[in-house]
Amino acid sequence: MSTNNYFSSFGQIVNTMKKYFNYFYLIIFAFLVSCNPTPIIESDMLDSGQISYAIQDSFQKHLVSNYINNPSPSQLDTPVIIAAHGYTATTFEWDELRNLANTKGTFYVSQVLLGGHGRSYEAFKKSTWEDWQQSIKDEYRKLDSLGFKKIYLAGSSTGAPLIINMVKSGFFANYNQPKGIFLIDPIVVSVNKTLTMVGLLGPVLGYTTVDLPTGEKGKWYVYRPQETLKQLMQLINQTRIDLQNGITLPAQTYMKVFKSQEDDVADPISALLIYKGMKTSNGGKIDAELINSKLHVFTRLAGRENVTPDDIALQKKVFADMEVKMTE
User: Fold this and answer.
1) Which of 182, 186, 197, 228 would suit a FRET pair with 327, their CA atoms being 20 to 30 Å apart?
2) pLDDT for the residue numbered 138
3) What's 218-240 look like in SS3?
């Protein structure tokens, strides 16, 4: 190629790049201009702080430490599982497991409302991931102090890395060790790769919005403040680093990961990272199972649209697996 042709070709490439950059800037400009940093919140939204989950008494409504605050010997010997929901959700995410527990009578479910969640947009906006985690810690301390002998934990989606961090930080060293941990569709790697740009675009973006089907309205936040998206990224990034360095479970603590083969929130590689990064106290492997589902947090079916018989059967199977492990 002659020198002139080379520079001519190079010039065409530069012009093409400039054109695409101009398109990019126009898209970003239009995107940013269209964003309102202050959402319009209606009274029937969870974000308003005016519905049931935002009432102070409801924060402890489904906590075992609240309604069994003077346990009998038989109650102390009954397994209790602390169930932590995901980002922007509420205790509603674990209602079906609690309903099963109430029917079977073989175990208890203590549903924690993560800090900052279920209150108001402003309260959520100000919260950190450590705040989200605090309610899990508080309930564990209370159950331990009451003398419950068989404490388990379950985390769905973001609830999972919050629990993993409790293991990594050595939280359980000062208490009776948990008997087991169950993780449902844990998020360590997000499917939404644009989430990694929240640090760059977040301050201008202000918040993102999610459309909720009728059955989920009032139970999840509609608006997701960029501040909380940053907290979510900090949490899952730190969890990946901790898993790469290796995490050892407390002595005699069982762990199992249940992960949908395909969902629109948590990348399946999340389960692999946990499987490779978590070890039992004697250096053994944890249990992990890929689930034939496309639902994120497949164990929660209430409020969803188009639930199939297969979805129901799968939920029953996993709940049964958890019950068997807790009561064996």
Assistant:
1) 186
2) 97
3) CCCCCEEEHHHHHHHHHHHHHHH
pLDDT at 2 over 50: no
Which tops the pLDDT comparison, 51 or 202? Answer: 51
Structure tokens given for 323: 């019950």
132 close to 85: Cβ distance less than 8 angstroms: no
Location of structure tokens 């209150």? 119
Minimal CA–CA distance to 82: which of 22, 16, 138? 138
The pLDDT value given to residue 221: 94
Q: What's residue 201's pLDDT? A: 52
Query: Which phi and psi (to 5°) does residue 248 adopt?
Result: -110, 130
Confidence of residue 53 (pLDDT cuts 50, 70, 90): confident
Identify the CA nearest to 250 among candidates 291, 280, 209.
Answer: 280
40-327: CATH, from 3.10.620.30, 3.90.226.10, 3.40.50.2300, 3.40.50.1820: 3.40.50.1820
Helix (H) or strand (E) holding 154: strand 151-156
Helix (H) or strand (E) holding 158: none
